[in-house]
Design a protein that fits this description.
Length: 93
Amino acid sequence: MIPFSDEELKPAVEKSLEKIKPSLAMDGGGLTLLDVKNGKVFVQLQGACVGCSASNQTLKYLIERQLRIDIHPEIEVINIPPGMESMIEELSQ
């Protein structure tokens, strides 16, 4: 269990994601933080990351790994494809 509220997590998540954005940009990709709910971080990969076959690896081994190092080892990152933002509530359970 993550010992922080979603409100406490959000600024830390934003700061951690800023470290990752330059790496994504080098490959023509991007990232937007959509929300933090129940200790889960909802992001939307953008640019070249959308539909890229390596996007799952990017999510787990770059984004989630960085957040786990910076914040908490159990933090989970979920990519929400464009147009699917209404799924956040369902996936945060």
